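Go through this one:
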Amino acid sequence: MTASALTRPGERDRLSTKITELDWRLIGLLGVIACVGAAMLYSIAGGQWQPWAAKHLLRFGALLAALLVMAMIHPKWWFRAAYPLYGLLLVLVLMIEFTPLGYTAGGARNWLNLGFMRIQPAEFIKIGLVLALARWYHNHSAQDARWSWKLLIPAGMIGLPFLLVAKQPDLGSAMVIGLTGAAVMFVAGLSWRVIAAGAAAAVAVIPPFVMFGMHDYQRNRVLTFLSPESDPSGTGYNIIQSKIALGSGGFLGKGYGLGSQSQLEFLPERHTDFIFSTLAEEFGFVGSFTVLACYVAIILISLRIASLAHSHFGRIAAAGMTGFFALFVLINGAMVMGLAPVVGVPMPLLSYGGSSMMTVMIGFGLVLSTRVHRYAELPKGHGLF
């Protein structure tokens, strides 16, 4: 039994005790990846802090402070806020579609223009969804989680934001929302028969969905993924240039600031979607493997934190937050290597982008809250507030 387990409940609520309970390995790894991202953004800009690297570091610093504050908050407050937060974020997604505040960028109406700032609610709905699902499963039995008509409720909670975001159209965010929800249901104990049936249904639905349910540019992305060489100067350009950057880095890379694909601007979206390709070109296999190892370490540490939580809500919430982070890494990695269609999913903390970084840091704030308060018990049957 650890010393922290023997600490009296009142002592565990002290700020000094909570700070010692933080997992500083996890915080350090997040900082390492953010700093690598800033270094790559500095390189891409030709050795300049503007327009990306300085903002990237400032955002990370501010969000790191917010992460530490969130880690001190007792999970009971996240539990109580789960349903209201999910509802609020759904309203924001609906406002994009049905109010003049909706803003179109990159061919998708997925931003909310508040005048003083623009936000992308599809990023934050992932957090609201994980919390709402964690609360639902906390109040239901293992049998309900395994197989029951009641599973229609979490399925609807996943399906509603998925459909709304897919309609914007933002296929990448919709994919992450759907897969995150599926991951939470799996962690909660969903029957393997249901999982197999769902996988079979997805395989059967994909071809007609690609042909009849996608916009033309989305369909072209999928077809380009299957054969990028068929249109090397058009829809296949991004994937081809990314593969060239990945391959030209070799084992040790061309050197910092010496990547021709990024420095000569052959590589598109080199500061966001394809920043990992830039990293691979300049630092080769060794650099790429090191960064991926950091991502894997973050995921394993977070899953370990989830497994140690005493409350079912804490376990599900921490595992769900880890799940969407892992999906970001897997989808972006597959995308830049030509193993998946280009769907606009950033590499977390490495890519430039405020909404994405905020989502990730809020998620890990909740993971660390679970770590700090891992002995907390949450009773079932709480009301809405």
User: Anything to note?
Assistant: The radius of gyration is 21 Å. Confidence is low (pLDDT under 50) at residues 1-7. Strands lie at 102-105, 108-113, 118-119. Residues 135 and 331 are 27 Å apart (CA to CA).
